[in-house]
Amino acid sequence: MASLTGRRAVFAVPVLLVVTFGVFAIAAASPFDPVRAYAGTAALGADQETLDRLRSNLGVDGSFAQRWWHWLTSALGGDLGQSSVMRQPVAQVIGERLVWSTLLCAVAFVVAVAVGTVLGVLAARRPGSALDRVVSSLSYSLEAAPVFWIALLAVWLFSLQLGVLPAGGLTDTASEQVTAGQVAHHLVLPAGVLAVSQLPWFVLYVRQGVSDALAEDPVRGARARGLSETTVLTRHALRSGLLPVITLIGSRVPELITGALLVESVFSWPGIAAATVEAAVAVDFPLLAALTALATAAVLVGNLLADLLYGLIDPRVKPSEM
């Protein structure tokens, strides 16, 4: 396990370098001007000398390669730079918002895995039954539905029609402080929508994996020995059927992050979505690079955890072979 982690860590270094370099290259080719985005309407009446001076103060007067190298060397020293659009240090921007994005993604992911596993197992127990057809049909339908459409539908139903859940934000409008109860109440709808968007993949994978496992010889042998159906399902079929799901967990991290950005935007959740959009529009090089590196690191860590879990669950797989 340590050897696998070390190899992945070494592999992550060039990946992060290429990704951050690509961010600066793409941002440099963008039609948006970071100086005019920073100055706003004041840039309309400013002369070229003033704009050039502001460009120098913002550190965007050199080539994108020079800006990337300056950001990289500063980041290695612990300084992620200053966000021009947020008017704050990049580390502070990310620190204030990352905790809420992490909370949203973690809750949604746990719910999606737990509910998806239960529904997948129930559907796999009796293939072709009414429950199996309903669960499979619903999964395929949700798989094709855009996450922002699900979010808007949830707002219309639970907030506007039923009035049981808040439509957005972190706390109640009249509240002067953040409390755990208010956060939990406001978290239900965005986390539920994000979980629903990830649910079909887990349901279908678990259903297929458990269904295949129930047809294998070891499971048939367990049934022939007179073991109860619950024991056969939980101790034999489920463990074998969940192996593909372990791999799926790591591969779903990129879509989970993308879905979280859309969900945060719809529900005004104070995560990194708003910062990402503003950084992209304003071509905020330091913030864009830091957010992209963070997302890339999350994907790499997700894949690593999936491989480690796969090796722990399946003794036939050796970490040295991954």
Describe the structure.
- The chain has 322 residues and is mainly alpha-helical.
- It folds into 2 domains: 2-89, no CATH class; 90-281, MetI-like fold.
- Helix content is 75%, strand content 1%.
- It contains 14 helices and 2 strands.
- It has helices at 2-29, 34-39, 48-58, 64-76, 90-125, 130-144, 147-161, 180-214, 217-224, 229-241, 243-251, 253-267, 273-281, 285-313, and strands spanning 82-83, 88-89.
- Strands 1-2 form a two-stranded antiparallel sheet.
- A hairpin with a 4-residue loop joins strand 1 (82-83) and strand 2.
- Helix 6 packs across helix 8, helix 8 (180-214) packs across helix 11 and helix 11 runs antiparallel to helix 14.
- The N and C termini lie close together (10 Å).
- The mean pLDDT is 79.
